[in-house]
Fold this protein.
Amino acid sequence: MTTEHLTPVTIVGAGPVGLMLANLLSAYDIPVIVIERNSTTVQAPRAVSIDDESLRALQIAGLADSLKERCAMDYGSVYLGPTRNPFAQVSPTSAEYGHPRRSAFAQPELEALLAQE
């Protein structure tokens, strides 16, 4: 099937999910139209951590390397309770599926990267 016979997919909303979907569809040469009422993406971070599975999805879209340049790769966290005592710790140290299990990122930078493609 050639792409000239495909009806473009219309995505309403250029948040991280809509932008990621647009990038994935484009990676498969599927025409995409994204409609967004705001002129820019949200500039306040709401997500700060990305896992290996999400990096694999970004890899399909050709964006993983660009994002990884901006990430703090393979970091851990200590979670504190109301009394500031630790109740959980995450210390990922493996990348058995090609990417670190957990990395820190700035959501506005990810959204800008997704929007420019």
Observations:
- The longest strand covers residues 86-90.
- Residues 5 and 31 are 10 Å apart (CA to CA).
- The chain is about 30% helix and 20% strand.
- Strands lie at 9-12, 32-35, 49-51, 77-80, 86-90, 102-104.
